[in-house]
Amino acid sequence: MAETIPAGSTTDGVIQVGQPTDARVSAPASYDVADFPVPHGREEDWRFTPLERLRGLHDGTAVADGGVKVEVTAPAGVTVETVGRDDARLGKAGKPVDRVAAQAYSSFEKASVVSVPKETVLTEPVRIAVHGEGGTAFGHQVIEIGAFAEAVVVIDHTGDATVAANVEYLIGDGAKLTVVSVQDWDDTAVHAGQHTALVGRDATFKSVVVTFGGDLVRLHPRVVYGAPGGEAELYGLYFTDNGQHQEHRLFIDHDTPHCRSNVAYKGALQGAEAHAVWIGDVLIRAAAEGTDTYELNRNLVLTDGARVDSVPNLEIETGEIVGAGHASATGRFEDEQLFYLMARGIPADEARRLVVRGFFAELVQQIGLPELEERLIAKIEAELEASVG
Amino acid sequence: MATLEIHDLHVSVDAEGGPREILRGVDLTVKQGETHAIMGPNGSGKSTLAYSLAGHPKYTVTGGTVTLDGEDVLAMSVDERARAGVFLAMQYPVEVPGVSVSNFLRTSATAIRGEAPKLRTWVKEVKEAMERLHIDSSFAERNVNEGFSGGEKKRHEILQLELLKPAIAILDETDSGLDVDALRVVSEGVNRVRESGQVGTLLITHYTRILRYIKPDHVHVFAAGRIAESGGPELADKLEEEGYEEYVKGGASE
């Protein structure tokens, strides 16, 4: 990038990277919303979020009215159930870590559980369509993959809604789960939630989080390892337009030896009031010898005024690891780059498209899902078209 | 027969304390097939002329005209100028992250030619042009100018010149920072384009060295924002011996 802003900084000026000692671990985690005070915006984990746009999800004033439809389409062999709050499979991946996630956990009435039996290899993805019809909803989804099973799950969020919903991924030993969560909401939607994966022994978890829509989207993708040998790849792609707030707060808890994690999130921003937040927390605990982890966040700011806060945190409690690294950079699409491309006959809108497509290309290839690849590229083109044109 | 006509061109840039005039009435006509060397001391406004012709937004034209075959170049956007046939080989080519050289060249050629070049002939065309300029084939997959050495950047500029075949080529200090070998390779590239007889060349340089490889038809001395003297190749010989001192004393305002 022509202008590279170092890790732990924002486009508005360098901020302090350091947090109070181990903020992530000392932060409360609880299933009960009452255990979390109502945030006021100064708290470490809320300071980037415009609370007034959460429509009461954070302070108990949001009231569920059921205006969100969830449809699950699953290939043969997969069990899809709607269960009550007392089902033993709920809450196994981990506790909610903020008040909105806890509100969702305290408020949902029925949860959906999708189970792939052990040693079952799906050839078709499981599709979960979450469609907002202007309502407010709290939800809970569990996706359970038995030992040595393999599955791809695509969760699509569309329409307009105010939603707080958590997703748990329970990945059995040696199993492989790929999850694509697409936030393709209308630009009026509000969506907050926690996606927690519990990765079994020698299991593989691949997460692709794609956020294009919403007025405010705030997600916590989290990974914990239940046993050694687990592997997690977390990819993310966001395109933040004027007026949108898109926040991804990742946490990878290396609590077990010989696990790997790789994070790559890339975002483009355009429009004066576009705001993207990326928090990448990785904790390697003393017991997690042999850990191999890397996290990367790249942002491309296409127009003046858009704001990025990118904060990677790596905390290492043991020296006996294979590798640990992080990188964060925010670049601007500069007038000089535009001039250079235009001086070769390329019109301004096409020049911008060329740069953005190039910026995302490597990540899209890395994701390695051809069907999604085409959809992502088409969506990126559409986003550019809408704003440039 | 393409002709670039610059008449009484005045150009300013924004500076502290208001606009500062850099070009103060430039008159120059460049015809297809001709090569004009523009030589001058640092700060004389040579590069400003180059960037103003290409339409860089930093420069404000405050007076005069520029036409290409009678068409008003100053009324065109940057990309329109390029498509009309004006090419600027930049002194400091810009890095464009995320965009590969091959993608860039093809997008550019498509824009300039008005249609996408046929893939099979295009691949061959690029490969051969790269070989002639001693550019390794791995460059095609690298991001535009990212991590290129000074010499690689200049060869990449000339590669574009060869592929885009403009009517008017403006080479802004293409020779600066090149060692003798690189200078020869780059000059050969320029000469190949010149030999076609289809291009008018404006060769902007501080040094006479490149003129041993690229023979100009006309030499102009640029000083204090305008052409101070014009002549044939012999004028370059005089500059080689005497330098710019005479012109600097004569007119520079700072």
Tally of separate helices of chain A = 5
* Helix proportion of chain A: 10-25%
The total count of helices of chain B amounts to 8
Proportion of strand residues of chain A? 35-45%
Q: What ranges of chain B have pLDDT less than 50 throughout 5 or more consecutive residues?
A: none
- Percentage of residues in DSSP E strands of chain B: 25-35%
Biggest beta sheet summary of chain B: 6 strands, mixed
Q: How many structural domains in the coordinates of chain B? A: 1
Helix proportion of residues of chain B, in percent?
25-40%
Pfam families (chain B): ABC_tran
Domain ABC transporter (chain B): 4-249
Protein name (chain B): Fe-S cluster assembly ATPase SufC
Organism (chain B): Streptomyces endocoffeicus
Give a summary of the structure in a few sentences.
The complex is a heterodimer of chains A (389) and B (254). With 389 residues, chain A is α/β, with parallel strands linked by helices.
Question: How would you explain this protein's 3D organization?
Answer:
The complex is a heterodimer of chains A (389) and B (254). Chain A has 389 residues and is of the alpha/beta class. Chain A has one domain. Helices cover 15% and strands 43% of the residues of chain A. Chain A has helices at 23-26, 99-107, 335-342, 348-367, 370-388; strands spanning 9-10, 13-14, 68-73, 79-83, 111-116, 126-145, 150-171, 176-183, 190-199, 204-211, 216-225, 231-240, 245-254, 260-269, 275-284, 292-301, 307-316, 323-332. Chain A has an 18-stranded mixed beta sheet that branches. In chain A, a hairpin with a 2-residue loop joins strand 1 and strand 2 (13-14). The model of chain A is unreliable at 1-9 and 12-23 (pLDDT under 50). Chain B is an alpha/beta fold. Chain B has a single domain (3-97, 150-251), classed as Rossmann fold, CATH 3.40.50. In chain B, 36% of the residues lie in helices and 31% in strands. Chain B contains eight helices and twelve strands. In chain B, strand 1 (3-15) and strand 2 form a beta hairpin. The radius of gyration of chain B is 18 Å and the shape is globular. The mean pLDDT of chain B is 94. Chains A and B meet through helix 3 and helix 4 of A and helix 2, strand 7, helix 3 and strand 8 of B.
